[in-house]
Write a structure and sequence with these properties.
By secondary structure, this protein is mostly beta strands. It is built from 4 helices and 22 strands.
Length: 323
């Protein structure tokens, strides 16, 4: 609701401070509102286009009423949905362009309202928090590790320097050429292309979690993901204090291929016998929010030979109506 609150605040400021010549640019236009015999009584048809500043159209996203009981996907820049007249708010959302929420509007019975939305690329940078990489090998070896991150690095330890080169042993202690040892490789960054992933049925794979159960939840899921006790402890002590600030959260894990596709590809020489990469997305959510969820089920991996484990995560500060 940030956009709506901002619009209403600016409108109020404009009425009180005319001398400041405050100009409000609303990123949508109501093109027309007229009676339609094709729309049943008690409902209103809302249609229109989603257009970028270069006149191209948005092809991914949707338009919906605020409680998401009515939703229309964008098709070649256009949308068309029927909403009950009890609704007063319609919004546009795209994972690439964020959301635009209309101010409350009187949607009249048997009317057709045409609305054009004009999104801009917000380039909101999301924090990619504490990905850490553990390496173990039953036979001592030297490994080089390179990342192709879909964003910008902000910190690494030891210094990344276009890759890491480390001596790996069975205990998991990693030694660099300067003789220093590390329990894991650490990196962080920022990206503008991060969102929860829908499955092929248009629903979400993930978990609705009451946070007073977050410890047991993590222990169960991380065990299923084949993280050992030390890796679980590192994960839980970093994330649990942040998550319990909320009563309920939605959690989705990106594992292995999904991690590579959405966060960062990884190249390791020699090739590990076993690789497990776990990235968690979470967002605060209302208990009453009715998500169409499919709980995720994970396949364990073996951990013999040369094994590499990586985990990281992000808090998604979003309006959960987009889910």
């Amino acid at each position: 609701m940030k956009e709506l609150i901002t619009i209403l605040l600016l409108m109020t400021m404009g009425s009180l401070t005319a001398k400041s010549e405050l100009r409000l640019i609303v990123p949508y236009t109501i093109i027309s509102d007229s009676v339609s015999t094709q729309v049943p009584e008690g409902y209103c048809k809302v249609k229109g286009r989603v257009v970028l500043t270069d006149s191209s159209v948005v092809r991914k996203g949707f338009v919906a009423n605020y409680d998401m009981t009515r939703k229309a996907k964008i098709a070649e820049g256009t949308f068309d949905l029927i909403i009950p007249t009890t609704d007063s708010i319609v919004f546009f959302y795209s994972p690439n362009y964020g959301e635009i929420i209309m101010s409350p509007y009187d949607f009249k019975s048997s009317h057709e309202v045409t609305v054009h939305f004009y999104p801009t690329d917000p380039q909101i940078m999301m924090e990619v928090d504490k990905p850490v990489i553990y390496c173990y090998s039953e036979q001592p070896l030297t490994a080089t590790i390179d990342l192709n991150f879909n964003g910008d690095f902000t910190f690494s330890y030891p210094a990344y320097n276009e890759g890491w080169k480390v001596a790996v042993n069975e205990s998991g202690s990693l030694k660099t050429d300067d003789g220093n040892s590390y329990p894991y490789l650490f990196w962080e960054g920022e990206t503008s292309s991060l969102s929860f992933q829908e499955n092929k049925n248009g629903a979400y794979d993930g978990f609705f979690v009451q946070t007073d159960t977050i410890i047991s939840f993590f222990e169960d899921q991380l065990t299923a993901l084949s993280l050992n006790r030390q890796e679980q402890t590192d994960f839980i002590t970093y994330w649990a204090p942040r998550i319990i600030e909320n009563e309920h959260v939605f959690i989705q894990f990106m594992v292995d291929e999904a991690y590579a596709e959405n966060i960062a590809e990884i190249s390791i020489t020699p090739k590990p016998d076993h690789l497990r990469r776990v990235y968690m997305l979470f967002t605060p959510i209302s208990e009453s929010h009715n998500l169409d969820l499919n709980p995720q089920i994970f396949k364990p991996i073996n951990r013999n030979g040369f094994t590499v484990i990586e985990w990281g995560g992000s808090e998604m500060n979003i309006n959960t109506n987009q889910l």
